[in-house]
Design goal:
Elements lengths: L23 E6 L8 E6 L2 E7 L6 E5 L13 E3 L2 E3 L6 E2 L5 E2 L13 E2 L1 E4 L2 E5 L12 H5 L2 E11 L3 H8 L3 H5 L3 E3 L4 E6 L2 E10 L4 H10 L3 E8 L3 E8 L2 E12 L3 E11 L5 H25 L13 H14 L31 H4 L2
Antiparallel strand pairs: 1-11, 2-3, 3-4, 4-9, 5-6, 6-7, 7-8, 10-11, 12-19, 13-15, 14-15, 15-16, 16-17, 17-18, 18-19
The structure holds FE2/S2 (inorganic) cluster (FES) and fe (ii) ion.
Fe (ii) ion binds next to loops.
């Protein structure tokens, strides 16, 4: 038994790892963003806007405040594939460069843009200037088409690390989820961005969803839970002859905790009735599984175990080490740099003003 240093009694923050890791975040469902529409979302402390181009239908993600003078771009308008800011009508191209007939704008003032992709009916944005790793794809999506179903978003007043730790806590499987491990679980580091827990369990519960799960799985549920970039979890399961995945994104918000958005997928083309029914059933079973966590997470102050009493505690310690090694998303645009106050310089040192004729050239 390993004894670790106790936490101070006056724990103020129970977050482990960065407040908002550099990661892919599911910020909206594709259906929420029609061509020409603009949405606002939070990534940690940073506000972002998303819009869909009218020609290309592609999604662009920008820092929410205009690099020119700080107008909120949620007031803007989509013009073709560009965005027009509401305050001075400057045109911002999808790469963040200002264009159109705008006066010259230094390249350092281009609009901060974030990598964005659409996968499985959702819009994912990378919190960081460049994506430092590829978007994770579930195994079944490499085999053939998948049918997906979004789960309703849910906000919890806890950090993302609490939610991920709960998802990978093998000791609570029996206590909360009525699942009994059939063999010892494995926990591996896949690479610097990913760890994976794999286990095989049987059902011990007596809820309707437990009976359905027991019947479908023949009482053998194989699950692999990958924690990707810290705040994303990919659950891939083999339930009898059925394979499913659930991709969960825990999006930190500075004021509210974390918003969980998730999408469930099953193999099969989306126009097939059988695939639609399977996706609906998988979503219902997964929601029934998650519902058992909801009350437990309320007012929780989860922290790393101070004493390793079980294999689950040892696993949590390794998970926390992984969390602590993650890179933080530090949006430079969140606090705009003050430009040199040139009016305070001696006249000789002031830059030559650009004439109006030059400015509109
Ligand atoms: S503030 Fe956006 S164009 Fe001026
Ligand atoms: Fe749980």
């Amino acid at each position: 038994m390993t004894v670790r240093a106790a936490y101070p009694l006056d724990i103020i923050s129970n977050a482990v790892g960065p407040a908002c890791p550099q990661n892919w975040y599911l910020v909206a469902s594709s259906m929420e963003l029609a061509p020409g529409a603009i949405l606002t979302r939070m990534l940690g402390d940073a506000e972002i806007i998303l819009y869909r181009g009218q020609h290309s239908q592609r999604v662009t993600a920008f820092a929410a405040h205009c690099a020119h003078a700080g107008c909120h771009l949620g007031h803007g308008r989509v013009v073709g594939d560009d965005l027009r800011c509401a305050l001075h009508h400057r045109i911002i191209r999808p790469d963040g460069n200002f264009g159109g007939s705008a006066p010259r704008t230094p390249s350092s003032s281009s609009q901060p843009a974030f990598p964005a992709v659409e996968r499985f009916g959702g819009i994912f944005v990378f919190a960081g200037e460049h994506a430092t790793f590829e978007f994770p794809m579930p195994e079944i999506s490499a085999i053939g088409p998948v049918t997906v179903r979004s789960l309703p978003p849910r906000t919890f007043a806890v950090p993302w690390s609490t939610l991920i730790s709960n998802g990978m806590d093998i000791d609570h499987l029996q206590a909360v989820h009525d699942r009994k491990l059939r063999e010892p679980p494995t926990f591996r580091r896949i690479d610097e961005h990913q760890v994976r827990l794999s286990y095989c369990a049987s059902v011990t519960g007596s809820h309707l969803s437990d009976h359905v799960m027991k019947w479908i799985s023949d009482d053998e549920i194989r699950a692999s839970i990958s924690c990707i970039g810290g705040s994303m979890m990919l659950v891939e399961s083999q339930v009898g002859r059925h394979r499913t995945f659930v991709l969960l994104s825990m999006c930190p918000s500075g004021t509210t905790g974390s918003t969980v958005r998730a999408v469930v997928g099953v193999p099969g083309a989306s126009h097939r009735l059988g695939s639609k029914i399977s996706a609906r059933l998988a979503a219902w079973l997964f929601q029934a599984f998650l519902t058992k966590d909801v009350a437990i997470l309320e007012r929780m102050r989860w922290h790393e175990p101070t004493v390793e009493m079980t294999d689950g505690d040892a696993l949590m310690v390794r998970l926390c080490d992984f969390f602590r090694g993650l890179a933080e998303f530090e949006p430079t645009h969140a606090r705009p740099q003050l430009k040199a106050a040139t009016h305070l310089l001696p006249v000789a040192a002031r830059p030559t003003p650009i004439s109006r004729a030059e400015a509109i050239r």
